[in-house]
Design goal:
The chain is α+β, with helices and mostly antiparallel strands. It has two domains: 4-114, no CATH class; 118-136 and 154-192, no CATH class. Helices cover 30% and strands 18% of the residues. It has six helices and six strands; from the N terminus they run αβββαααβαββα. A three-stranded antiparallel beta sheet has the order 1-2-3, with helices on one face. Helix 2 crosses helix 4. Bound molecules: zinc ion (ZN).
């Protein structure tokens, strides 16, 4: 679960992204260098200067949200609704006013990117497990021929049509994370 205020405020959304992105410290996405310093801001996002390559980057650089004209809070809302309430991509494209292609691409990136996460949790941690019918998103609800289910795309196919989604609430830090995992087996749970 994501704190609801991130859906209404771009700076709250940016804060959440910042905390999740740099949980292991700020690293230059080009050279993987940690010799970075804060360097102003880009809109709501913190900007950094890499002292190795002398180039700047911000909280969105290198994430699936980079180079999107759509506000981050809208993407977070989409991901949340997609995972938590099984909202179809067709419905979401209307909600956040983007094309089907746009939302399909980002959601697909998201489900692929978070496949085997490693999060530093302070704990105690509560794990809530829900199942999402990812394979049905494209096939049954979205009737247009170009939209295919997430499970049938070439990359990152799921083992089954119902990939488990873990909702982690870290009582130590107050953070909550939504994490799709490939299988709800023991090894995945240990990974988390
Ligand atoms: Zn660099």
């Amino acid at each position: 679960m994501i704190p609801l205020d991130v859906f209404g405020s771009e700076s709250a959304a940016a804060n959440l992204l910042q905390q999740v992105c740099w949980r292991d410290g700020v690293i230059c996405p080009r050279w993987r260098s940690d010799r970075t310093v804060r360097n102003g801001s880009y809109r709501e996002y913190q900007r950094y200067l890499c002292q190795n390559c002398d180039r700047t980057f911000n909280d969105k650089t290198g994430t699936i949200f980079a180079h999107s004209k759509v506000a981050l809070r809208r993407w977070l809302f989409s991901i949340y609704a997609f995972l938590r309430f099984n909202t179809s991509l067709r419905q979401l494209q209307c909600e956040i006013e983007v094309t089907h292609k746009t939302i399909h691409r980002r959601i697909e990136c998201f489900t692929r990117a978070l496949d085997a996460p490693s999060l530093d949790l302070v704990g105690p941690v509560e794990i809530d497990e829900v199942y999402v019918s990812a394979g049905k998103k494209g096939r049954e609800r979205d009737q247009e021929p170009h939209s295919r289910g997430l499970s049938t795309r070439g990359c990152g196919s799921y083992d089954s049509d119902k990939p488990p989604v873990f909702i982690l609430a870290d009582r130590g830090t107050g953070q909550r994370y939504v994490i799709p995992a490939r299988a709800a087996d023991e090894s995945t749970i240990r990974l988390l």
